[in-house]
Amino acid sequence: MVEQQQSKNSDQPWETRRWRAGITTFIAGLATTLAFFAFCPGLPHVIDWGAILVAIAVGVLARWACQSWMTRSAGKKPEGL
Q: Contact at 8 Å (CB) between 72 and 65?
């Protein structure tokens, strides 16, 4: 019982870093995609609902990729699977 509590406490800083990296990556993907739609030459330079939905999808995909990479590099199994 004590060993299980210690292992959960030892994983907490890693989980916190993983969570923060995921949020940061989501925001970076979202901002990069919105900047692409706003400033890329040849596009109409309008942020509409389609651009917002694509930016959210890119942010979610970037977050998933970052967290998968962190989990794989640490050699741990994801909790959701």
A: no
